[in-house]
Amino acid sequence: MRQASRVASCLCDFDSSVASVRAVSRFLRGRSFGGLGVVPGSARLADGLARLPSAARRRAFVLAGQLQSARPGLVSGLRAEDLARWITSQYGPGPYPAVFVGAVSGAAVHLAAAMGAPVLPQTFLVPVRARLDPDQPRAALEAGRALGRHMAGVNRELSLCHMHDPSQDRAMLVRFMYFRFKRLQLGPVLTRFLEQQLAPGGTIFIVDCTLRWPMTVLGDRHRFQFGALGGMPAHEYANGSEEIARHLAEQGSPVRRWEGPPPDETYPEAEWGYDDALTADLRALAARRGHPVRRITIGEPEHLSPLVAELHRWWLRRLGRPADRLLVESYNQWEPYWTLRLGAVPLWLQFTARSSYRLLESYLERSPTGTYRRVDVNLFSNGLRAVGQVPAEDWDILAGRFGTEGGGTLGVDRRAFPEDIGSTLRWGPALAAQPERYPLPPRLTVEELDAFLDQQRGTEAARLAPFESVDEGSP
Hints:
The protein is of the alpha/beta class and 475 residues long. It has 20 helices and 15 strands. The strands form 3 sheets. The chain has a 6-stranded mixed beta sheet with strand order 3-5-4-8-7-9. A 5-stranded mixed beta sheet has the order 2-1-6-10-15, sandwiched between helices. A 4-stranded parallel beta sheet has the order 12-11-13-14. The radius of gyration is 21 Å and the shape is globular. The relative contact order is 0.15.
């Protein structure tokens, strides 16, 4: 029990991987995710936080970051199998018809929930307590070098990337370092879970996000990533721009561009990219136990979203439900339970940046199955207006333009966004307050998924996220 508590103390509630495991595991027990730390009265608390002055909301984000971080001494004792035991402890005994392993995607969260399948993320964030200047990435690298070298050395099954993004993560970087671990081998705990809990003939889905990022190599399986997927490409972090200069001026920074450490080569992106080293163990287990393996290849995590949205629309109509309401979610604020209880179609966006806005707009313009009666959008707040971020008003206008009977932001205080620290407390209650209700549907089967995919051949959604069979033979 003490070890489990120590591991939980090293994890981060708002990490996309932790949130995906919690959301799916709760759904498989017939419960809503509820967001992060939601309790009775959370919506009122969120509204109270939103009414604070901007400076106070910013300080609240910093405090939240400090509370989420772990002392270096605690982190130094963390081991790969500790993380694996935390994952498997979240799920019941099964058996499960399928499992989703690899990169995190909110669309995969919804697909896994629909199929009654657990998600086993490859990557986890461990926030290490530190006081940093977000605009000094080279100093941040040095601050984390010794602990990172130790952690990579004692965890041979993992790679470690110290990620530093002074745009999107600025509010948190002043209190902790982002250590992201990727599992390169299954290890005994996950192997035993798959052998015991995956049903005979159950499918292993590998979520393969091919996104890569330039990194500085610090040692064997130890790297530093400056910048991250979001509002701008890697070269803009490295070379600067007028938009970055304006952003830094707005933040009161003395610099107008960042001086990051020179990268050595590209690797799978720290939070979202899939390291294919894990595939060898998955294929070996599949061959040994007779499990089919399917690879879902996506360039960015939200590229799976249009296909999963259309799948839900197809599935809901087969169940005799209208499928005319779209719920747009962002970052870790996904809610598969209420999505299905409301008979809604989920479309998940990785961030509130321009690229995600364009993906939603393109989907609404080109949806092959017609318009939506209502389009509701939830926005994740990261504590400041990051480079490339789209204002809440623009999301409101977009939703209203395509919802034939209305829509807009839901569970969001538009005046406080992106410093709406209570947004994660408000999303679940906002859905639970909606009047529509349906019983949870029976599980979506692999056969139904394949029937849908056959109909989707040649579409843009299928091109963005192809499902391919993998040879089950030994690698």
